[in-house]
User: Which sequence fits this backbone?
């Protein structure tokens, strides 16, 4: 009986070492993937002041935090509308995303990507301009001709 157990164990060991193949047909790529950790081509972003992180926005309407040491994704959020710009603030530690042709501003926590607040600025605007102060503690978002949002320590 001991010979059969040894032979069975050896067969299982050899079967586990055999190479396996995992593939998709080319036309199914991106359709049935279980995990797609893609951010897309980066269009805007900024760096963290003291940690090796970059906060980016992409053409796929993704806001993400990337680890600069190994390139891994710390977190990502896919927006339901077109992403226009991303602004990084240090104090408070927020990442601001402007989307929907300037009609929506969201503040994301830099650590866990929790949404701190969201502001609606009416309808779509013709232009979006973002200016941050020199010490990166405050930003003013000018949207269109008459709308603006002031962001800083006093903003909830």
Assistant:
């Amino acid at each position: 009986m001991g010979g059969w157990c040894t032979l069975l164990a050896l067969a299982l060991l050899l079967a586990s070492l055999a190479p396996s193949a995992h593939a998709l047909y080319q036309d199914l790529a991106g359709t049935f993937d279980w995990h797609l950790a893609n951010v897309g081509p980066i269009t805007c972003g900024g760096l963290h002041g003291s940690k090796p992180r970059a906060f980016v926005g992409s053409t796929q309407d993704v806001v993400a935090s990337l680890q600069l040491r190994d390139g891994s994704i710390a977190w990502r959020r896919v927006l339901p509308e077109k992403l226009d710009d991303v602004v990084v603030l240090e104090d408070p530690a927020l990442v601001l995303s402007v989307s929907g042709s300037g009609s929506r501003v969201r503040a994301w926590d830099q650590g866990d990507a929790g949404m701190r607040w969201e502001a609606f600025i009416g309808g779509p605007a013709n232009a979006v301009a973002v200016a941050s102060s020199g010490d990166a503690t405050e930003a003013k978002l000018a949207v269109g001709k008459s709308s603006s949002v002031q962001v800083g320590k006093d903003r909830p």
In short: The chain has a mean pLDDT of 74. The longest strand covers residues 83-89. The chain has one helix and eleven strands.
